[in-house]
Structure formats: C-alpha cells, structure tokens
C-alpha cells in the first residue's frame, strides 16, 4: 500500500500494492466501458424508456448492486453516451477543418467527418440523434449546448462559403437539410455493402456541394474538384470507444 507522510511525499510499501491498485483501476475502467457500450447497444435497440437499469446490468454481466458504483441511474449513462458522442464528433470536425481555407474543401471535409462518424459509430449516433428528448433539467440544457456548438461549426462553414461567393445563400434550411441527409447514414449503412467509407464520403460530398450550389468561376464543383480528408487519418479520428462492436455478453 502507498502511504503519504506529513510533507505530502508518497512512499512505496513492500509487496507491490501500488501495482495492485493500478490493476483495480484498470478493471474499474474496463467495467465502466462495458456498461457504456451495453447501454449504447440497448438504448439504440429499445430506446431509453424501453431499457431498464437491470436490463443494462444483466446484459453486461454485472451485478445490479455493483453497477450503482458506476452510475446511480440509467439517466447518467445516457448523459455519458451523449456527451462522449458529441465531444468526439465536434472535436474530430474541428481538427479536420484545421488548416483548410477553401470553402468547398471545408464543406467536403465536414461532410466526410459526419458521414464517417455515423458509418463507424451507428449505435451511438442513433442514441445521440434520437434520445435527446429523454434528457431533463440541467443535463438537457448542457447537452443542448454541446449539440448547438457542433451545429455552429456547420453554420460557420456554410456562412463563410456564402460570403466568399462559392455557395448559394440557401438560408438556415441548408444546414438542416445537409445534417438530415448525412445523419441517415447511421440507419442504413452496412460495412459489407457495396460502398466503403471513402466512397460514401465522396458521394455525400458530391451531393452536399450540389445542394449548396458550389461553384468556382461559374463552374459547378464536384467531389473530384476538392480535397477530401485522407481516410487513413479520418477513421481513427472519428472512432468512438463506447460504440459497441459486438452484442453485449449477456444478450
């Protein structure tokens, strides 16, 4: 066991207890991740209101009494899923846009991030997209702020393109239409389908540019005219650790 003297210095006791503590912390983190992945799976399958705290515990293979060490309610698990999902989506978008100046490149990159994120994290994306209504109080207000921050990234890219004369001014409905279009990927995309993520990003970038009337020197811009993010860099950036890659062990 590690002990602390009056000066605050930490001493290492004999017997390797610090290593044991590290192992326990690692086990705790693994259990927490298992619960978040299980909750994400069940929320995406049954909805928040159709999922009970006992359902999550049993599907994860964790005792209900032990589960309360990690979350006092399923509401806390939903909040954690929403926050992590929106954080990765917003951060990956900003990181991908960093260093890009051309409006068409920026829109294509933003579309690629959203498409890749929803293709790689369909269950978490569906929860974030559809279970917001289950949030209440301050949590709902906080998560709404996170969602607004992400949508503000889109609004900024579109407004810059309009000011530069590259996009048509379609009003706020353009942002809503684009987001609705690309968000649907989480519902129908299958990795073993005819399109890979790169091809999917190219198709949606093409449609997004057309929707905004993107043009340069009077010539319409297509996906082949812009620089899409390299897929090898994009995929790790959008990877969400709480996305369940397989069915929970107790189901």
Please write out the topology.
Blueprint: E1 3-4, E2 10-11, H1 17-46, H2 53-60, H3 64-67, H4 74-97, H5 103-120, H6 122-130, H7 137-163, H8 172-183, H9 185-188, H10 197-211, E3 215-216, E4 219-220, H11 231-238
Antiparallel strand pairs: 1-2, 3-4
Helix pairs in contact: 1-2, 1-4, 1-6, 4-5, 4-6, 4-7, 5-6, 5-7, 5-8, 5-10
Plain-language structure description:
With 251 residues, the protein is mainly alpha-helical. The protein has a domain at 79-238: Tetracycline Repressor, domain 2. 63% of the residues lie in helices and 3% in strands. The protein is built from eleven helices and four strands; from the N terminus they run ββααααααααααββα. The strands form two sheets. A two-stranded antiparallel ribbon has the order 1-2. It is elongated, with a radius of gyration of 22 Å. Mean pLDDT is 90; it is low at 1-20.
Specify the oligomeric state.
single chain
In DSSP terms (H or I, runs of 4 or more residues), the helix count works out at 11
Order of helices and strands: EEHHHHHHHHHHEEH
CATH architectural group of the domain at 79-238: Orthogonal Bundle
**Strand line-up of the largest beta sheet:** 1-2
Mean pLDDT: 90
Distance between the termini: 39 Å
What share of residues are in beta strands? under 5%
Judged by helices, strands and strand pairing, the structural class is mainly alpha
User: At the first level of CATH, what is the class of the domain at 79-238?
Assistant: Mainly Alpha
């Amino acid at each position: 066991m590690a002990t602390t003297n009056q000066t605050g210095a930490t001493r290492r006791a004999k017997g390797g207890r610090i290593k044991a503590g590290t192992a326990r912390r690692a086990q705790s983190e693994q259990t927490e991740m298992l619960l978040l992945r299980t909750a994400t799976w069940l929320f995406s399958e049954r909805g928040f209101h159709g999922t009970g705290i006992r359902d999550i515990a049993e599907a994860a293979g964790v005792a209900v009494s032990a589960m309360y060490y990690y979350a006092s309610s399923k509401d806390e698990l939903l909040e954690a899923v929403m926050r992590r999902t929106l954080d990765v989506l917003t951060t990956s978008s900003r990181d991908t846009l960093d260093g890009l100046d051309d409006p068409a490149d920026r829109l294509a990159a933003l579309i690629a991030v959203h498409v890749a994120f929803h293709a790689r994290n369909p269950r978490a994306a569906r929860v974030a997209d559809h279970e917001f209504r289950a949030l209440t109080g301050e949590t709902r207000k906080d998560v709404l702020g996170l969602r607004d921050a992400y949508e503000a990234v889109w609004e900024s890219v579109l407004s810059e393109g309009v000011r530069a004369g590259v996009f048509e001014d379609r009003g706020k409905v353009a942002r809503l239409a684009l987001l609705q279009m690309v968000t649907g990927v989480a519902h129908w995309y299958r990795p073993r389908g005819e399109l890979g993520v790169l091809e999917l990003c190219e198709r949606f970038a093409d449609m997004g540019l057309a929707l905004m009337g993107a043009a340069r020197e009077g010539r319409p811009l297509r996906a082949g005219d812009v620089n899409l993010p390299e897929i090898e860099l994009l995929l790790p950036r959008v990877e969400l650790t709480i996305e369940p890659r397989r069915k929970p062990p107790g189901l």
